[in-house]
Amino acid sequence: MIDSMRFEQIVREAGQIAKRQWPGDGHRVESWEKSPGSPVCAADIEVDSFLRRELAALLPAAGWLSEETADKPARLAKGLCWVVDPIDGTRDYLRGRPGWAVSVALVSGGRPLIGTLVAPARDEVWSATAGKGAWRNGERLRASKRTKFEGARIPADSLPAEDRMLTTVVKPNSIALRVAMVAADEADILATLRWGYEWDIAAATLIAREAGAAVSDAFGKTLAYNKRDPRSFGLLVSAPGIHAAAAEHLADRAGRYSQPT
């Protein structure tokens, strides 16, 4: 379908563009807020421009959906669409922490076909192709086999009272990397209870699914991509053996928090 080696090379190059401006290496980067609490920086914009140019050359027929590009409905008429977050985890990026990644997926028929996360500050490249497995730095990924919900590992700084039967593990700012932790059996569950965008999770959810994890929205329903409204409520990625229990545990809050305010 496409030159997979060139695809990975492009995403790696995008990661290096970001790393050359990363404050964690002593660099200074211009930053501002798109909206209150939503930071963006010059590296986001440069990576976005690079990826849009190079991926369009790689696959001219594909549409484009990116956090840092104004959305155009023309993508909906395309059979294929690139779904991109130039820097997922911008807060960690700006703080000089390593928990950020470049996230790119190619979507067809509402499902990711290929996905890559490049986390250059962690020396990690995560990748997956539908039906062909998931990998980190060339090693095959196998998701957690946990079957007991209580005590499950979750990337979080702290937990509300109703979730304190779970066990916290380190939490990168990038939600894509948190999803990837489940794929790598470094966590058993990742759950969010808010409206989120496709570009944050398209590549990572493919990686998790290909590693054997169960993936859904907060209600346990199948996720779809390249939708007219590129949002979904919540994300639940877990070991298959605890997914039903996790969805039941979250159901009441998901119902309440998803309602318009």
Look at the helices and sheets and give the structural class.
alpha+beta
Rounded Rg = 17 Å
Q: What's the total number of strands?
A: 14
- Measured as a percent range, the helix fraction is 25-40%
Instruction: Spell out the helices and strands N to C.
Output: HEEHEEHEEEEEEEHEHEEH
> What's the overall geometry?
globular
The number of helical runs is 6
Let me know the average pLDDT: 96
Residue fraction in strands: 25-35%
Topology:
Elements: H1 4-19, E1 31-35, E2 38-41, H2 42-58, E3 63-66, E4 80-88, H3 90-95, E5 101-108, E6 111-119, E7 124-129, E8 134-136, E9 139-140, E10 153-155, E11 167-169, H4 175-183, E12 189-197, H5 198-210, E13 214-216, E14 231-238, H6 240-257
Parallel strand pairs: 3-4, 10-11
Antiparallel strand pairs: 1-2, 4-5, 5-6, 6-7, 7-8, 8-9, 12-14, 13-14
Helix pairs in contact: 1-2, 4-5
If you had to describe this structure to a student in words, what would you say it looks like?
30% of the residues lie in helices and 29% in strands. The chain has helices spanning 4-19, 42-58, 90-95, 175-183, 198-210, 240-257, and strands at residues 31-35, 38-41, 63-66, 80-88, 101-108, 111-119, 124-129, 134-136, 139-140, 153-155, 167-169, 189-197, 214-216, 231-238. It has a 7-stranded mixed beta sheet with strand order 3-4-5-6-7-8-9. A 3-stranded antiparallel beta sheet has the order 12-14-13, sandwiched between helices. Helix 1 (4-19) runs antiparallel to helix 2 and helix 4 (175-183) runs parallel beside helix 5. The chain is globular and about 45 Å long. The N and C termini lie far apart (44 Å).
